[in-house]
Amino acid sequence: MKKKWKETFSSVTSRYGSYSLGSIALVVAIVIVANLIVGQLPETVRNVDLSDNKIYEITEVSRELLQDLEYPVEITVLAEKEQTDNRIQNFVEKYAGLSSKISLEWIDPVQHPSALTEYDAQQNSLVVSCEETDKKRVISFGEIITYDQMSYYTTGSMQETAFDGEGQLTAAVNYVISSESCKVYTSTGHGEAQFSDSVQDLMEKANYSVEEWNLLMNPEIPEDCELFVLNGATSDITEDEQKGIVDYLQQGGKVLVLLGETEKDTSHLDAIFEEYGLERESGYIADIQRSYQQNPYYVFPLLSLGEAYAKGMSSEMVLLINAQGFTQTEPKRESITVDAFMNTSTEGYAVTEEEEKQGTYVLGATATESISANSVSGKEEEEELESRLTVLGAGTMIDAGVTDTFSTLENLTLFMNVVGANFGEDTNISIEPKSLEVTYNTVQYPGMFSLLVIFGIPVIVLGFGFVTWLRRRKA
What angle do CA 397, 403, 409 make, to 5 degrees? Predict the structure, then answer.
């Protein structure tokens, strides 16, 4: 019997079989050990973003915020974990893994209904809180994955439009660790445009408190105003309003003006620009060299951005429609410095009914002035304030009709950078949602590639087949 077993295991077949069995066992052991090691790695390392629209990708803005957290932050998810959308679940766990100061807890409100009362929140929501500041913000799942409500009436089902996990969480974390918000007042009474939903959302994410102010009724800008915005006014301001804005600037105030489309006289508003070294040109600006689909009034300005304005800008493609332009002049005071960061090309034109005036025109500029706090408050201590007047040549820069239609442009990114610079912020904390629209693997500019696919590959295959057939025939 022993001899028979010995002969069986000494055969070539048995040796190869034993070798194969040993190899399989070794590979299985390696896989098990590797799986155990990988399972102990942090969530940020284990999760690789293979999604079509990179919804799990977290920007440097959020990473820097989380790395520099001063206080511990708690994220409490009030939902059944097994029933939660995998995208939300994966993103929250990845996000929390970026900082040791963030704790993540899941509470099932079905098993613990008192949690909803304790956190003053609804089921299927996240509560971001900070014990040190005693502040919290509630984010519903509906704010993370947004839907097109109107699609229900046409298709019978609501279509997903965007994933805003990073934007909502980063805004919430920034809010709960901040002691106060920045106060922004927007002008009314001159046909101004209201901020679109997208802009309002970004302002809220940046922790800016926005309130309207009518200069006609109250010509003095409030003391707590940190930025005063005139968005697309269609009529001129009064002399009293002009004085109120100039006085505010000369006390170290910050003013942002987006020009509106108007054919009315705007001499009082223009007088402010001229004091700060910007003279408005008549008519609308066209640019033959940098236009959208040969429409010269749809202008892509040449950008010259400093570090604060360039944050998050990758393509530097900004579109202005029916913009108005300026030429730089000497400011009324030597203490004023003008930085033009948006310009036309040399093929720019200021177009009126009477003429087309060629030149290079300013479409966006910031004028700053250093002001001694002594002259403002009468104090003896030396302290420098900085007044800031920023002018954008078209209110259409942040119009929903532009930003929603051309979603790949960076209009809103630049606008929020401009707003943030008035508060001394180098980083725009507002992060736009990521689109969930279906994308297709199509070649936008086929050219020679399409010729290769249509003609080249078939010719190569046929040629190879013919050569093979010829060789076999000769054989």
Answer: 85
* pTM given for the model: 0.72
The pLDDT assigned to 49 comes to 47
Other C-beta atoms closer than 10 Å to the C-beta of 111 total 8
Phi and psi (nearest 5°) for 102? -105, 125
Q: With 70 as the cut, is the pLDDT of residue 261 above it?
A: yes
Are 40 and 54 members of one domain? no
Residue 465 lies in a domain: yes
pLDDT surpassing 90 at residue 95 = yes
Same domain as 42, residue 83: no
Tell me the residue type at 322: N
Let me know: does 119 contact 74? Beta carbons within 8 Å: no
In angstroms, the CA 436 to CA 175 distance is 26
- Asked if residue 352 and residue 301 are part of one domain, the reply reads yes
Q: Which residues of 435-451 are buried (b: 16+ CB within 10 A; e: fewer)?
A: bbeeeeeeeeeeeeeee
State the pairing for strand pair 73-78/102-107. parallel
Which among 273, 271, 223, 229 has a CA at the least distance from the CA of 248? 223
H helix intervals, 68-113? 86-96
* pLDDT at 180 > cutoff 50: yes
- The answer to whether residue 475 scores a pLDDT higher than 70 is no
How big is the chain by its Cα radius of gyration, in Å?
A: 31
* 365 and 217 belong to one structural domain: yes
**Counting beta carbons within 10 angstroms of the beta carbon of residue 110, is it exposed (0 to 12), middle (13 to 18) or buried (19 or more)?**
exposed
Neighbours of 126 (CB within 10 A): 25
State the virtual CA torsion across 403, 405, 409, 415 in degrees, nearest 10: -10
Q: What is the domain extent for residue 411? A: 181-435
**What's the rounded Cα separation, in Å, for the pair 42 and 23?**
31
